[in-house]
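ugh ok fine here u go
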Amino acid sequence: MTTSVPAAPQQNSNPRILSIQALRGIAAMLVVLLHMHHVEGKYFSTNTLGAFQYGWIGVDLFFLISGVVISLVTVGKFQDRANALRFLYHRLARIFPTYWFYYLIILAAYLVNPLWISAASGHRLDFLPSILLIPCSSVVVGQAWTLSYELYFYIVFFFILLLVPERFVIHVLLAWGAIIALIDCFLRVPYQSLTLWVMTDTFIFEFLAGCLLLHFYRRFRLSAHAGGWILALSLIWFGAYVVYTNYAHAGNSDWLKNSYWIRPLCSGVTGFLFLLGAMTMERAGTLRVGKALSHLGDWSYSIYLSHQIVIELVGRTVARYFHSVPYAMLLVDLVALPLVLLVGYLSYNWVELPILTRLYKRTAH
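structure:
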């Protein structure tokens, strides 16, 4: 949001699905824990956060959630030029201003000392493509590669909203997915063609699955018991490929994360079932979302954009001054996690929300 897409002032009459809001926050924290695991491997010899190597599932959740949210906010607004333009404006307003804030922070750090930034790319960054989220190999805000996918989803959906009657939307979404599947099967785009890669990647199936999930949710009402069973099935499916990974790949989940087709079939299906189960249980009244998780969902976009800065600073500091301390990573955990939440909270309330409120007032209706 869808990448993590920020919460914002309500745009339409459709009710907010609080379980989606909570899962947005959970997805952000999964990514945070994944990157803390990476910092541990980078600076320390321990593996206390090894279980969170699966935190990349948070990205799959974001794409699914993005599909649900976009389908929700566009209900009843098709084939109307004003609605289509308003939709695109709102989505761009949600992504870019807060992203540019963190882009400028990293740019400033790079200008002070390039060695602080992006050692994996030889401390070289693609500044011009990054500012517009054009797919590139060395993005300025490392985790913002997912926003290039979100931007693509928004642009395509803008044209769907503009041109397609609402009764045919599901057919168009299925056709989009079928075209991408055919391309992926017979005309595999090389990774070097990054823009075409993004436009045909299997992450698109997760976004489309989120769209179709919302349409299914609106048309059919499952029982609370069914929601619980679906939620349990998602956890069983997740456990199945974790067990297989431990057995066949020595516990290293990279084979799954980097598998073009297997990843959506594993983590994508897990996320789809988990979302459907949680949404069904919430509607039946057997799942309630507390204020803490709701707030975490509000902060999720700011957390997503800021957390690597925080974790890297804390990790480097602890590695420099406490490297000889056994399990020094625990100190990183104790400092970084609360700090990530604090920065996310401050960023949402002092940067993201004021910007969104001001920009949204321009299209109030």
